[in-house]
Amino acid sequence: MDLLGVDRAKATTEMTHTRGPKVRLSWLRDVYQECCDQELWECATRAYLLHLVGCTIFTNKSGMLIRVSYLLLFRDLAAYGRYAWGAATLAHTYEQLGDASFSDIRQIVGYSTLL
């Protein structure tokens, strides 16, 4: 709530709708637009970055949801540029590749271009 500048009711409604600690990418785009309209630039930056990693690095099979736990990576906007994003991407991709190796799984998730 604090990092994206949304109130408790709006956050609770979204978490109830997604049935867990996830948000829809469309909801995140709306939050980004609201933050820009209200000139809350740090919140808008966090919403944009969360949307970016949700669409590229840390994608999931739904293609529409992103875990809010990744938002903590953007708490300090001065520090996120020092993170090892390549290593995080590789670890996530390898984890998804391991999951995709099971016989009942039909697709792989993640930024498969890196494979």
Describe the protein in words.
This protein has 115 residues and is mainly alpha-helical. It has a domain at 8-83. 48% of the residues lie in helices and 5% in strands. It has 4 helices and 2 strands; from the N terminus they run αβααβα. The chain has helices spanning 8-18, 25-37, 41-55, 85-100, and strands at 22-24, 65-67. The chain has a two-stranded antiparallel sheet with strand order 1-2. Helix 2 (25-37) runs antiparallel to helix 3 (41-55). The longest helix is centred in the C-terminal third of the chain and has 16 residues, at 85-100. The N and C termini lie far apart (35 Å).
Report the mean per-residue pLDDT as an integer: 85
User: Helices and strands, in N-to-C order?
Assistant: HEHHEH
Q: Kindly report how far apart the N and C termini lie.
A: 35 Å
Note the overall shape: globular
Strand order in space, largest sheet: 1-2
Largest sheet entry? 2 strands, antiparallel
Helix content: 40-55%
- The count of β-strands is 2
- The Rg value, from CA coordinates, equals 15 Å
Instruction: Tell me what portion of residues adopts beta-strand conformation.
Output: 5-15%
- List low-confidence stretches: none
Number of helices: 4
Which secondary-structure class do the elements indicate?
mainly alpha
